[in-house]
Amino acid sequence: MMTQKDGCMKIIEANGARIPAIGYGTWTLKDGDCADMVARAIDAGYRHIDTAAMYGNEQAVGEGIRRSGIARDEIFLTTKVWWENIAGGDLQRSAGESIDRLGLGAVDLLLIHWPNPAVPLEESIAALNDTVTAGLTHHIGLGNFTSTMMDEAVALSAAPLVCNQVEFHPFLSQDSIRAACHRHGMALVAYSPVGQGGDILAHPLIAGLAAQYGRTPAQIVLRWEIQQDGVAAIPRTKTPARLAENLAVFDFDLSEDDHAAVTALTVKRQRLVDPGWAPNWDRI
Known about the structure:
Helix content is 39%, strand content 19%. Strand 2 and strand 3 form a beta hairpin. Strands 4-5-6-7-8-9-10-11 form an 8-stranded parallel beta sheet. The chain has helices spanning 31-44, 58-68, 90-102, 121-133, 147-156, 175-184, 199-202, 204-213, 217-226, 240-247, 256-264, and strands at 2-6, 9-14, 17-20, 24-25, 48-50, 76-81, 107-112, 137-143, 161-167, 187-191, 231-233.
């Protein structure tokens, strides 16, 4: 896996995919507001857009991308198949429906949103591979997989898996996932990268570093994430003014000591997303 700069944007190269390190997450965005924010995000400079079948906004995301006027091949577009639809046949059908709703042709990356213990991993990975063969997606990957499940999925997959999208922020270490990503040349794509509800951004260390660097707390947290090798982040905002703020993290670095101080907060293991269908998470 490699990282490089493409203009002002850091690009993560992972098993053939070129993933912009900061993307725009669209969870909870709906209808016209979603389309408007996606178009605004692209106008602000985002080239990585993330959605999912479960979000119920793929049609609006597609509309926003078309409205932006940016060529389709300049956008890295991800969508995901919900965990209830990852059996053989169901996954391929769900992926096809997502492509139809987006209306943009093949996506760049298709993920299994969550694993499903009732579906053999071999079956769901084979179905995921079928979507590449069928021309529905250029790349495939995982979401919310443990490190052990990542190892198993990689061993089962004919096509390379390019990422595991997981919750990752300064209150939640993901050392085991990061190690597995490095083993397999995969990226870690962080959702909820600045947390939820403001607790992370209000932490005295984060607030202090923001003052020290002349940045916002969100910029400190996002910089901490993307400064790690192979890590991308997909912050979500409904506030247009924050679009540019969240993207403006490529012109400074946290010092080694300051980065380590933020990393030390991850021992809190404060997970924000833990539904009943979640796997038995890694402990580190």
